[in-house]
Amino acid sequence: MERNETAALIRGGEAVFGLELGSTRIKAVLIGPHGEVLASGSYDWENRLEQGVWTYHMDDVWHGIQESYKNLAASVEEKYGEKITHLKALGFSAMMHGYLAFDREGELLVPFRTWRNTMTEEAAADLTSRFGFNIPQRWSIAHLHQAILNNEPHVKDIAFITTLAGYVHWKLTGEKVLGIGDASGMFPIDSEHNVYDSGMMDTFDILHKEHNLPWRLRDILPQIRLAGEDAGELTDAGALLLDPTGTLKPGAPLCPPEGDAGTGMTATNSVRVRTGNISAGTSVFAMIVLEKALSKVHTEIDMVTTPTGKPVAMVHCNNCTSDINAWAGLFKSFAELIGAKCSMPQALDTMFFEALKGDADCGGLVSCNYFSGEPITGMEEGRPLFMRLPDSAFTFQNFARTQLYSAMATLKIGMDILIEKEHAEVDSLLGHGGFFKAKGVGQKLMAGALHTPVSVMETAGEGGPWGMALLASYLVNAEDGETLEDYLDKNIFAEAKSETAEPDETDMQGFDKFLERYKATLPVEKSAVETLK
């Protein structure tokens, strides 16, 4: 759109806003009627490890949201000479899973326990057995069950539990609701009726009858909403929470809050059956929209849903780019010490592009990138490790390739189960997230690792916040009865450009050799967890 046209659209309150709280960055985007990004704003933050718990403080949540919005609003005023006073719709998403428990006064009972924690092994295994359904450690119900098993005193005072996105939405609208995709990471979903599984809820309540809890599970979970359904509107207090200057006025509708899995599916147009996507950043997960249910329970594979409730198989790994970022920071520091100017983007780009020049099998090097625990491989905690044999080809190129391979290794272990044992069919696999930012590198190596073509759209860099904005746009711009799939195809992705990397035979063979070394290294990683305290 032309500048004057865009300015008029913003002035008329026709722009749509989306924000996502990621693991290391909070980003907001403003879009037009066809998904075009008009402006963005972001804020960097980090989780904290406090008393053995990975957490974020709620003050940090609101500070980050406000800073992201402020930066976006400043960009809008600079580009178009307009202040944002009204929005057509809003949507908020965040990291899925975790545990946020509140009492009747709305006070947080214990510090936020994020998806990254691996403290619920006992609870997750118990519920998986009782439900006949895989309950990963990071799911909200596993955290709740573990808190009960641990006799934590706060449990009796619970009035409401939710996710980070659900919390933000609640404070902005007063509505205790959750998009079905995010809800599917709290508790199993009955995909035929798009509700929490009633039988499993009864099983949970019966299981804890002896504890004489003053609540039933169905009374403390957020209500489920599907994409396109009403989820409340921005209140006076909510508008001031988002924009403390008071410039933004209340009243705009909000779409159901979603998790980063749902926004990733939306941002890559992977909400139809037989489509899939890979989100690779601090964590990495691959999602395939299934034609049929899995034949059996696999603890390595989660069952979640699309934002409209279709069943999705998800392979989720806690660790992806954190170790790459740590090494890039080290190289940046070294460069500065010898008088060379080097930014983090330069250091990262150098690692990624030089990795393509390394040996296909990394010359015998191996790295385990576990900053935190990794349930797929049975690790309760993480200890990043790098190893080599005395005769390994220790070059920078091989080292860089090793770090990128390590970021994909655990994902490959999980995907092999889905593809080889469950014979899941996928027509397209799209990548998004920081791992794919260096053009052509991440997708080429990912295609080799997974033995599957991987595409990256031009819009992939927008990621989850853009996907959230698209869900908000669907709420207010879709025609009556128009499905999310059709809306995205017709209005957003009709002319989208993408590049596809076919799996290269040399890359496939090289990664397979690396993966053998990686698996052989896991006992060393386990020993490091046990001995390095």
TrEMBL record:
- Outline the extent of the Carbohydrate kinase FGGY C-terminal domain: 277-474
Q: Per its UniProt record, what InterPro entries does this chain match?
A: ATPase_NBD (IPR043129), FGGY_C (IPR018485), FGGY_Carb_Kinase (IPR050406), FGGY_N (IPR018484)
Q: Which Pfam families match?
A: FGGY_C, FGGY_N
An example molecular function term from Gene Ontology annotations:
kinase activity
One BP annotation, GO: carbohydrate metabolic process
Is Metal-binding a UniProt keyword of this protein?
no
Kinase is among the record's keywords? yes
SUPFAM superfamilies listed in its UniProt record: Actin-like ATPase domain
Ranges for domain Carbohydrate kinase FGGY N-terminal: 17-239
What keywords appear on the UniProt entry? Kinase, Transferase
Q: Which domain of life is it from?
A: Bacteria
| Similarity comment | Belongs to the FGGY kinase family.
Q: What is this protein called?
A: FGGY-family carbohydrate kinase
